[in-house]
Amino acid sequence: MNYTLHQLQVFLKITQTKSITRAAEELHLTQPAVSIQLRNFQDQFEIPLTEIIGRQLYVTDFGKEIAIAADTILNEVHAINYKTMAFKGQLSGRLKLAVVSTGKYVIPYFLSDFLKTNASVELEMDVNNKTKVIKALKNNEVDFALVSVLPKDLAIESEVLLENRLVLVGNTDVVTTTRKSIPEVLYDSPLLFRELGSATRMAMEGYINQKKIQSKMAIQLTSNEAVKQAVIAGLGISIMPIIGLKNEMDNKQLKIISSSGLPLTTNWRLIWLKGKKMSPVGSAFLSFIQKEKEAIISDKFSWITNY
Q1: Per the structure, how many domains does the chain have?
Q2: Containing structural domain, residue 63
Q3: Which of 97, 100, 172, 248 has CB 3.0 to 4.6 Å from 254, enough for a Cys bridge?
Q4: Which H or E run includes 233?
């Protein structure tokens, strides 16, 4: 056996993405380079690691066992690097975050200065819907999760980062100055929803049910960005977190529709498993958040109060 760490890294990424193309994208390599590394790695084993059926790549049972071993080896290599940096007096290690989709407008501002100050810290951040984010936290796959609605069946601790306001928005052609009531406006315009599992969708459905609002049509889209673009294009109206709408409201592409019971208000929270033994990086990040969050909010998010 004469495989390299680079081959292990490439093979592990292929098993995670189930795609040579996506593995190449995430590793910032060309597709041919990834294919060559996979072939060179496979040549060292008599048993197939992967197989192609149709156009889909599948990892064999043997390949899955090798992927587990590769992950263990790479983690040990990272540990050696981190210990080396620690002896030099530098904070090092991995910070693993799972972030709900709209949280991508929030968390970068709470990470920026921390990562600049601690250049040896590696960041792994997965942006997904609420259901998958909570699953990653529950399985202890991440240090922290960023959510706006706390899970009910999980023992956690939390730190509030920022107020989360959800508002009803439409494009500039939506009529709100006529005699039509909000229920009539909502009935006349298709409602744009996020997919099942989204915290934004849960909040929107709760509001609609509470107000007993009926709509002639509902359209489901898979991301806040898709919903936003659909609202701008005039496909309908939606309840959305204001955090991701600043540019569009400043450019007059979207406007807030006033309605009783809105905005809905929750909080963006950093959460972690209760009793979790924090890594040095995790502890340092939490301390940084607790110390600096008010300054970050004042500097980066004061605009929210203008709407």
Answers
A1: 3
A2: 5-85
A3: 248
A4: none
